[in-house]
Amino acid sequence: MRKEDIDYTLYLVTDSSPAILGDRDLNHVVEEALEAGVGIVQFREKKGDTRELIEKARALHQITKKHNVPLLINDRVDVALAVGCEGIHIGQDDMDLATARRLLGEDAIIGVTVSNVEQAIEACQGGADYLGIGTVYATPTKTNTKDIIGTAGVRNILDHIADAGYTTRSVCIGGINASNVQRVLFQSNGIRKGLDGVAVVSAVVGAANPKAAALHLLSLLKRPPPFSSDLQRKSQALSETEALKPDLLPLIGPVIRAVHETTPLSHNMTNLVVQNFAANVALAIGASPIMSNYGEEAADLSKLGGALVINMGTVNPDGLANYMKALKAYNEAGRPVVFDPVGAGATTIRREAVKTIMAAGYLDVIKGNEGEIKTVFGDNKEQQRGVDSSSTLSASDKASLVRRLAHREKCVVVMTGKTDYVSDGIFTWAIDNGTPRLGEVTGTGCSLGTTISAAIASRQADRVTAVIAAMLHFEIAAELADERPDVSGPGTFIPAFLDELSRIRMDTASGNLSCVCDIQEKFGPAIFEFDKVISTTRKLLLSATHLRIPIFVTTQNRARLGDTVSELQPLLAQAGDLVRADLDKTRFSMWLPAIASHPHFSSSSSGGAGADATTSQPPQSSEVAIVGIESHICVTQTALDLLNAGHSVYVIADGVSSTRKEEVGIALARLRQAGAVVTTSESWLYELMGDAAIPEFKAIVNVVKETAKETGAALQGLLGSKI
Ligand SMILES: Nc1ncnc2c1ncn2[C@@H]1O[C@H](COP(=O)(O)OP(=O)(O)OP(=O)(O)O)[C@@H](O)[C@H]1O
Ligand SMILES: Cc1ncsc1CCO
Fold first, then answer.
1. Is there an atom of ligand 1 within 6 Å of 442 CB?
2. Which domain holds residue 442?
3. pLDDT over 50 at 137, yes or no
């Protein structure tokens, strides 16, 4: 067999110790593994006379030859020469590579164990045929912690040998089994160089049915892991196209709406302090919380389409065992996991807990304050005082730290604080929202983890967008709460914060929006039936305020043509933060970049490749009512742009006009043909309500009654021209 044809995918290392082989026959075990598809075998026997070793190796060689698979001998050049097998595997304390090569010749396969970059480069330089990189995890036979390098160590070695220009085949070894093989491979592989396979010992030799065990491992090795498809795809896209940083803002609203519409399960294994608060935050954002710290339950819960939060705020030995069970269950189900390493740098116990959890499974999101993230990265000097947030790093160091950790773990990392940093290892974002008030009450970081879990459960295919959407939802709600006149301290902040979380959700979820186009003072005398446009807009603004429908307002060249008319100003003030934008423009259409990218306007056909390439659900459209002037210019162009962006447009016929009345009818006919709904203010309002049982019905009926006279006049004055 040619060296380049060797299949390293599943590399079997033998072990005849009673603890692993038991009373099974080694030849039989190897035969079964070969039948399953093992592509290379290493005979590794620490004890035994030379003669005995040669006999055993000879017997094995007969079997491997039958399957056209190479047999290597661990450490013993003499045994390999005596048997005439295909090569050897040497460790750092064994015979050196150059001598072994001289003795065995160029055709022999020689592999070398390496556990750091220097050893790896030396082995590649010396002409090793493959590297055995490890130890990945501690095993009963390998407990020398100096050599335990984890997946981060494997990846570091692969990156360095790729940078040095070597393509030497590589497998990793140490504690690899069916429960971790996909994650080990996923997290170990660099962009430039991946592993060719994994070496296993007890996962096959110690299995009750070695053939079934090897078949299972091979099937896991050959398919992508159930998690993290978005990062794999993104890094591929990046290396192929150097894709630019995606514009996330248009994608935020749809995530908030997706949580509202799918009510995802947020399974919290959280600390004793925040159970109730985190559950209320989950409800406020539209998720379905379950606070369950019992690991055995996770297998069932993981199948319900939600996400898991592991928050080690009040960790204890039982808790740790439970987290591991749940982590395994969620990884197997391919559902997301958010890890909140609360107080990670406060005690030795917590530092160890972080290591244990990180070695036990794949974490989609790691979220913590600065001290916690430093500790997760491996800063052993970090001494946190309790669970509180404090900061010593510069902005660029924070950004670099989250990016490096995300890159290393192939996940999304969030560092919270006054400014938050988020990275998927490729791009890094800084978020300046939030309020210091969040630091005055306990558990805000923890309930942010819960919020993230719900978003990521709804948008697993684009985790970083989901995470940022959750953070914006959470932090903007906190800002709005903090600004409320009824909030005077941490006590009043909490209920207001829950209310604002829920309010943002309801506003975003409704999908109904209104646009007030250029109703300015200077147009007054020129516009046909201008007072009717104003009275219908008043009615619309009053109703929008009752129904909590976001409002977008523009003016055309405000400096010259004046502000929105004074009659509407008190209503805009009353609408308060429902007025999501009040912008001046020179462009005729209201579809300005600041409006098009507003979270309320989900991206559709105009939303750019980012939207469709990275979200699993189709983007949602909004239903937008338009009033204002002039019908045939700004109103027409706004409506056409909205339609083009995939939104539904309702042109309120008793609320739009032009200088010449003849223009109006033509404009409306054109918009109708383009797909807009041309309707009246009253019809739109009743369609919005849908049901007289809604709580706002009475208030809207009052508006309709109070404005009945103006509505009549507007219909008569304006609609005569709009057939
Ligand atoms: N000074 C600040 N200004 C604005 N936002 C802040 C400030 N401090 C914290 N936040 C926000 O508060 C939230 C929690 O972050 P923090 O770093 O306080 O978490 P934490 O220490 O893990 O909290 P806890 O342990 O109480 O759960 C984040 O959304 C963060 O952006
Ligand atoms: C105060 C506290 N102690 C352990 S967990 C926790 C909640 C905030 O992290």
1. yes
2. 249-507
3. yes
pTM for the complete prediction? Answer: 0.70
Please indicate, yes or no, if residue 242 is contained in any of the structural domains: no
The Cα–Cα gap between 358 and 482 comes to 36
HSE value, Cβ hemisphere, 13 Å, CA-based, for 109: 28
CB atoms under 10 Å from CB of 275, counted, come to 18
Q: Are residues 495 and 539 in the same domain?
A: no
pLDDT digits (tens, 9 = 90+) for 429-477: 999 999 999 999 999 999 999 999 999 999 887 899 999 999 999 999 9
Q: Is 311 in the pocket of ligand 1 (CB under 6 A)?
A: no
CB-count exposure of residue 396 (10 Å: 0-12, 13-18, 19+): exposed
Q: What is the secondary structure of 618-636 as a DSSP string?
A: PPP--EEEEEEE-IIIIIH
Q: Which of 507, 532, 560 is the last residue of a domain?
A: 507
Task: Tell me if 312 CB under 6 Å of ligand 2.
Answer: no
Q: For 615-645, what is each residue's pLDDT tens digit?
A: 334 446 789 999 999 999 999 999 999 999 8
In a domain, residue 239? The reply is no
pLDDT tens sequence across 381-409: 777 777 777 778 999 999 999 999 998 89
CA of 443, closest atom in ligand 2: 8
- Would 101 be classed as within a structural domain? yes
The CATH number linked to 613 is 3.40.50.850
Q: Give residue 350's pLDDT.
A: 96
Asked which of 487, 507, 527 is the last residue of a domain, the reply is: 507
Structural domain tally of the chain? 3
Same domain, 179 and 202: yes
Mutate to test the pocket of ligand 1, among 392, 438, 501 (most ligand atoms within 8 A of CB): 438
Give the Cα separation of 198 and 40 in Å (integer): 11
Q: Which of 85, 411, 446, 515 is catalytic?
A: 446
Q: Kindly state whether residues 65 and 178 are assigned to the same domain.
A: yes
pLDDT in tens, 698-708: 999 999 999 99
Distance, CA 271 to ligand 2 centroid (Å)? Answer: 7
pLDDT in tens, 554-610: 999 999 999 999 999 999 999 987 898 999 999 999 999 888 877 677 543 333 323
Ligand 1: which of 444, 446, 448, 479 to mutate, most ligand atoms within 8 Å of CB?
444
User: How far apart are the CA of 114 and the centre of ligand 2, in A?
Assistant: 41
Q: Are residues 392 and 478 in the same domain?
A: yes
Say which amino acid occupies 429: W
CATH number at residue 100: 3.20.20.70
446 has catalytic annotation: yes
In a domain, 521, yes or no: yes
Residues 175 and 161 in one domain: yes
Q: Based on the domain organization, do 298 and 392 belong to the same domain?
A: yes
The CB of 273 under 6 Å from ligand 2? The reply is yes
Please report which confidence band the pLDDT of residue 242 belongs to, taking 50, 70 and 90 as the band edges: very low
pLDDT score at 648: 92
The span from the CA of 518 to the CA of 562, in Å, is 10
N- to C-terminal Cα separation, the chain: 84
Give yes or no: residues 403 and 422 share one domain. Answer: yes
Q: Are residues 492 and 540 in the same domain?
A: no
Region for 389 from its dihedrals, namely left if φ exceeds 0, alpha if ψ lies in -120 to 50, beta otherwise = beta
φ/ψ of 183, rounded to 5, equals -70, -40
